[in-house]
Write a structure and sequence with these properties.
GO biological process, one term: SRP-dependent cotranslational protein targeting to membrane
Enzyme class: hydrolase
Number of strands: 10
Number of helices: 13
Family: Belongs to the GTP-binding SRP family. FtsY subfamily.
Shape: elongated
CATH superfamily of one domain: P-loop containing nucleotide triphosphate hydrolases
Catalytic activity: GTP + H2O = GDP + phosphate + H(+)
Oligomer: single chain
GO molecular function, one term: signal recognition particle binding
CATH class of one domain: Alpha Beta
Mean pLDDT: 77
Largest sheet: 8 strands, mixed
Helix content: 40-55%
Strand content: 5-15%
Length: 394
């Protein structure tokens, strides 16, 4: 019995050792399978191996998911810089504007040529010529002078064919428009400072738009320009001017307060232009009726305040060509208050009354320097007397 007990004990011990070895080998194979990388071409992780948000993870323990590093999201690209426009050169504008002027004033030229080349120029015919010129807003004095000159030339030269009449009419009209007048703009630095242009006019003539278009004319000529938004009565005026300037890369000096002192804004604009070493600063002013004494006095103040820092080199009066002779009184009053040096005629394409050019120049003794013939941003151009007369007669 003793040997039998010993034998049983030995068998139990040996069996336990063998069982332990078998269990250890089983755990190792399971861990090896868990840690071994997947073979090429083997299927990816199952749905059970995905984290709740869809990220791929490895299950180490029940209920625990180890997520991979999140994907780095690139920062959004910066917004592109605003595009600065390149304005059309003045030479190209003149060709285009001449064609428009010819269309709008064709009735004037055709009517005169038909009357003068009709072959029978009696007193009634000359009266009709005179009426045609008066209807074109040439003015009484200029009309009387032109008709007298034409009657003399027709009598002396005896020209009644259209070519001869056209030549005479062109020469006499050109003499009235006066090509000898200085139509240059003050757009160059003077004595180390920017030139200063003050733009004035009555309500509704398009001053702010004209200032914006004038900036484009000067930028096309490679000038460094600064704009001054001294129209502080219209809430949208400064915004409008800033938009015009921004399109061609021109800074606008303005006040953020509605109703600010326009003279102070103008002063700041001239000062800023000097600091920026600009070629020219253009000051926009509020529209005002010529019969409002208080408003006209304020305009005079704007000019005086500017002159404490810099001379005003140019005062441009913006006139609506469609107002005809009514614009003459406006021009006279503004001339008395701020000393007009040049005229800008807007909306010249909207009237056949091209004679207003002559009337304004003769009445004020100052030249028409710029004309507007459309709503486009580049529909403002320097006035060319010969192109103007030729357009009337085309």
């Amino acid at each position: 019995m003793t040997y039998v007990g010993i034998a049983v004990a030995i068998l139990v011990v040996v069996g336990g050792v063998i069982l332990g070895l078998l269990r250890g080998r089983g755990r190792s194979s399971v861990e090896d399978e868990r840690e071994a990388p997947p073979l090429p071409g083997s299927p990816g992780p199952s749905d059970a191996d995905l984290a709740p948000d869809g990220a791929i993870g490895t299950i180490e323990h029940p209920g625990e998911v180890v997520e991979e590093e999140p994907e780095v999201v690139a920062a959004p690209a910066p917004a592109p810089a605003p595009t600065v426009e390149t304005p059309e050169a003045p030479a190209g504008r003149l060709r285009r504007l001449r064609a428009r002027l010819a269309r709008s004033n064709s009735a004037l030229g055709k009517g005169l040529l038909a009357l003068l080349a009709g072959g029978s120029l009696d007193d009634a015919a000359w009266e009709e010529v005179e009426d045609t010129l008066l209807a074109a807003d040439l003015g009484v004095a200029a009309t009387t002078e032109l008709v007298a000159a034409l009657r003399t030339r027709v009598a002396v030269e005896g020209a009644t064919d259209e070519a001869g009449v056209r030549r005479m009419l062109r020469e006499e009209l050109l003499r009235l428009v006066d090509p000898a007048m200085d139509r240059s703009l003050a757009d160059e630095r003077v004595d180390g400072r920017p030139a200063c242009i003050l733009v004035v006019g009555v309500n509704g003539t398009g001053k702010t738009t004209t200032v914006g278009k004038l900036a484009r004319v000067l930028v096309a000529q490679d000038k460094d320009v600064v704009l001054g938004a001294a129209d502080t009565f219209r809430a949208a005026a400064a915004d409008q001017l800033e938009t015009w300037g921004g399109r061609v890369g021109v800074p606008t000096i303005r006040s953020e307060r509605d109703g600010a002192d326009p003279a102070a804004v103008a002063f700041d604009a001239v000062k800023a232009a000097a600091e920026l070493e600009a070629d020219v600063v253009i000051i926009d002013t509020a529209g005002r009726l010529q019969n409002k004494v208080g408003l006209m006095d304020e305009l005079g103040k704007v000019k005086r305040v500017i002159e404490k820092q810099s001379p005003v080199d140019e005062v441009l009066l913006v006139l609506d060509a469609t107002t005809g002779q009514n614009g003459m009184r406006q021009a006279e009053v503004f001339g008395e208050v701020v000393g007009i040096t040049g005229i800008v005629l807007t909306k010249l394409d909207g009237t056949a009354k091209g004679g207003i050019v002559v009337a304004v120049q003769r009445g004020l003794g100052v030249p028409v320097k710029l004309v507007g013939l459309g709503e486009g941003p580049d529909d403002l151009a320097p006035f060319d007397p010969e192109a103007f007369v030729d357009a009337i007669l085309d």
